[in-house]
Every structure is written in C-alpha cells, then in structure tokens.
Amino acid sequence: MDTLMLYAAASGEKMGIGAALGTAIFGYCVVFAGLVILMGVLYATGHYFKTRDEKAAAEAKQSLENISKQVEANPLTVVPAEAKKAPGSAGKVKLYDVPDREAAMLMAIVADKVQKPINELHFISIKEVKD
C-alpha cells in the first residue's frame, strides 16, 4: 500500500488512500450542500413571486367586482373611467385626409429614418399635401 500514496496539494505531504477518500467525500458533501441551499433559495423566491402575483390578481378581481356592483346599484350615476393609454403612447394623432394604414406606415418610416423607437416620437397631426 506504500505505492498508492497521493500528495496533498496545499502542504506537499504524502496522503494515504483513506485520507484522500475522506477529503474527496468531504468535498462532494460541501458541493452537494451548496446545491441544496441554492435550490431552496430558488424555490423560496419562486414561491414569493407566485403568491405576489396571485395577490395582485385577487385585488384586481375584487376591484372589478366592486365596480360591477356599483354599476348594478346605480347604472346612471357611474361615470366610465378614461381609457388608459399604452405604455409609451403619446396620445392621439389628428389625421387629415389620410387613411389609418398610410398614417401608420408614415410614422414607421419616420421612426426608421430618425432611428428612434416609435413610442419615443410624438406625432401631432398628419395631413396629405395636394398639389
């Protein structure tokens, strides 16, 4: 058994098979424990975000139920809320003798030429110039 000797990397001393086996098993256990801890953290994070989303959905459902109850109780006194704009929307565009499809193409062309996202541009009106 003297021929099967391993050298310890840190100290340069000879290490027997038993000590090498013990060091290897200890290293595997440390890595496995680290993976288990990481898995636990990921599960806990996932659970937190899942419950947060479920809570937000429940609150939205509750607010819709409250609004529907108000409408049923007083259908003529409830004023509808203004429609929310899309994120990055700059409002309405006034079109003068221009179909919607052509206006959309013109806005896309302008956004491409100035190399900016279309939601960062503000179009006030589009008018066809006739000769």
Descriptive report:
This protein is mainly alpha-helical and 131 residues long. It folds into two domains: 6-73; 94-127, no CATH class. Helix content is 55%, strand content 8%. It is built from two helices and four strands; from the N terminus they run E-E-H-E-H-E. It has helices at residues 17-73, 100-114; strands at 6-7, 14-15, 94-96, 125-127. The strands form two sheets. Strands 1-2 form a two-stranded antiparallel sheet. The chain has a two-stranded parallel ribbon with strand order 3-4. It is elongated.
Secondary structure elements and pairings:
Blueprint: E1 6-7, E2 14-15, H1 17-73, E3 94-96, H2 100-114, E4 125-127
Q: What's the arrangement of strands in the largest beta sheet?
A: 1-2
Largest sheet: 2 strands, antiparallel
N- and C-termini, Cα separation: 103 Å
β content, as a range? 5-15%
Order of helices and strands: EEHEHE
Counted by DSSP, the helix tally is: 2
Give the uncertain stretches in residue-range form.
none
User: For the residues shown, what is the average pLDDT?
Assistant: 81
Please name the defining characteristics of this protein:
2 domains; mainly alpha; two-stranded antiparallel ribbon; two-stranded parallel ribbon
